[in-house]
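REQUEST FORM: STRUCTURE PREDICTION
Request ID: SP-0412
Submitted by: Lab K.M.
Chain count: 1
Length (residues): 739
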Amino acid sequence: MLRLYNTLTRRVELFIPREQGVVRLYTCGPTVYRYVHLGNLRSFLMADWARRALEWSGYTVTHIKNITDVGHMRQELVDRGEDKLIAAALAEGKTPAEIAAFYTESFLQDERRLNILPAQHYPRATDHVQQMIALIGVLEQRGYAYRSGQNVYFDVRRFSDYGRLSGNRLEDLLEGVRAEADSAKRNPEDFALWKGAEPGRAMKWESPWGPGFPGWHIECSAMAMHYLGQQIDLHTGGVDNIFPHHEDEIAQSEAATGVPFARCWLHGAFLLADGLKMAKSQGNVYLLQDVIERGFDPLSFRLLCAMTHYRTPLNFTLGALRGAQHALDRLRRKLLEAEDAGGDADQELVEPWRQRFSAALADDLGLPQAVATVWAMLEAGLPPATICELLVDWDRVLGLRLAEWCAEARTIPLEVQALAAERSRLRQARDYAAADVIRDELIARGYEVLDHGSQTELRRRGNTLPSNRPLISSPRDVPSLLDQPSRVRWSVLLFGQDNADEMVRAVSALLLRPPAGGIEILAVDAGSGEAAVESLATLAALYPEVRAFYLDHNPGEGAGRNVGLRQALGEYILWLGNHIEPLGDIWGPLEAALSNPAVGAAGGWGLRTADLHHFEPGDGPEVDALEAYVLAFRRSVIREVGLLDEGFRFYRNLDLDFSMRLRARGYTLVVVPGLPVRVHEHRLWQRTPEPERERLSRHNFRRFLRRWRDRHDLLISSSGVHEHHHGRHDHDHHHHEEG
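STATUS: Completed
RESULT:
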């Protein structure tokens, strides 16, 4: 079952449509006076993924997306160029209808390029003015609307629930966006339902209140109810629609019908460029055509958006798009290879992966986790036919047209086939120089050239773009910034190998609830496979808060974490386990604990020991050691206790060694109970074969004991401690199930 964040209730809740198996979906569409930009398209992609996820889950969806082709401003403002639809028409020598038709087609073309499923209806406001007039009449009859001259206004104070969606209190409201000051209103917060046409106005209709034109908000209510009925299941739009547009939709719709208008309101966060909302006024607008002209496949933007949760602002950069393009090309090639191999899918292997993908979608439309599941599946060593079935099935939701691309990749034009045949003839004649000339031409035309003896096979290449990711071999390859002043409040250390989905999950969770004062995430990859590296590269390009480091091999946990420690610039550092997902404010409680200068570190789980040989979980608040799953400390203490011991290649007991370093300097260690985190399966532990776990754990613990076994002065208490194998509790097993 799909769970969505409902803006109306401000919580993630189970999505249940009014009619079983049927969803009525309404999306606020474009105002067609100019080209839509990437920020607009991100909102439409969110609606498309919601629809695809519902249809993939078996629902029948009726989708309505309106086209606003009505000008709303007064003629004197039009003459000054402030009604953008009519002003654009005048500037281009076209009628408003002509210019609206032009930009409507441009919008629909962009949707086709992004493989956004077409709505069942694209109602145009100009075709539904009579429905708007009828709705305004009902509001007037029920006492929610009043006339003032030739205008009709909604009396906001008559609707007691006004402000429920946006959280705006009525007494604090200012006049809504797009509503110019009007002394004829009873209250400044009232909004226009109908405006009388002034002399010279081109777009106007007859009504019971005289010739005029509808207000902005009444359009969506009238068209939604005309096609979907008085109650709809899901209403989508951008966060900038929440107030006043969607707030006013609720008021006028529910005042007219007496029943709830929409069960769930889904809003997507802004697309940023240069850290600012993408908008014409900011001068930072990118159109889809702009990225196409730069050589990108438009579907790379679709994949880029899928890598960020819809409620998280997305900072668009061409570097991020380049990473998404690489990832898209890899997905296409993987499916092409799987199709070539043939065979039948193993359904016993398919079903667990399908359930994992489904669970990601069900968790508030978790596309980032769903994409990470795709990469994890591709690295799992599954048979080609199983890979093929999963990719094709999942692409019904992702919408990347993978199968279509593969079919096109095998379709070679006749003139290109002739070149390949000529090259094969030249190779048979051993004229390799001439054959190489043709090979270069084929590559320039976008084909991959594969030689099988003297025969030439061609495949269409993806839009592979150059990549620059410097590799490092050890922490010493990056400069230490420990002596530099702090630049952000928190640095978070992530380290892993072939765990792209865990990295994505952590970054999404951290940036959904960032700390005051700023955050940087230092993600270190230890020689992962190409899929995980591509995923991390996309994350780093996508989020300015993420700094990625790529090791050319796995030097071990201690060395890998030191890469992040050497580069950290936060006042505080959080050492986070890959299986931990923050769910709320972890920053405040940790900072409160660390505000005591006697406290060296604070964390979510502590340990007690009587002899430094055997450790048990300790509730604290003061403990002998802290576990690294959630471990926070001031960056300044690293200058005192030093970096991590790189001899600890496995993660186990590295945190014990670090804890003892702090204790030896006179610091206390404290547990912060009740941190809002979800503990997932400790995959590194689970995937390590048991004999290897034993060997690595023994090695690490011997190293720990050699250094600390005679430091009994570091102990707090000897009560309640029992022996455990290798001197370490079994916390990995006891606590690390999904919570």
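NOTES: The radius of gyration is 30 Å.
Reviewed by: T.R.
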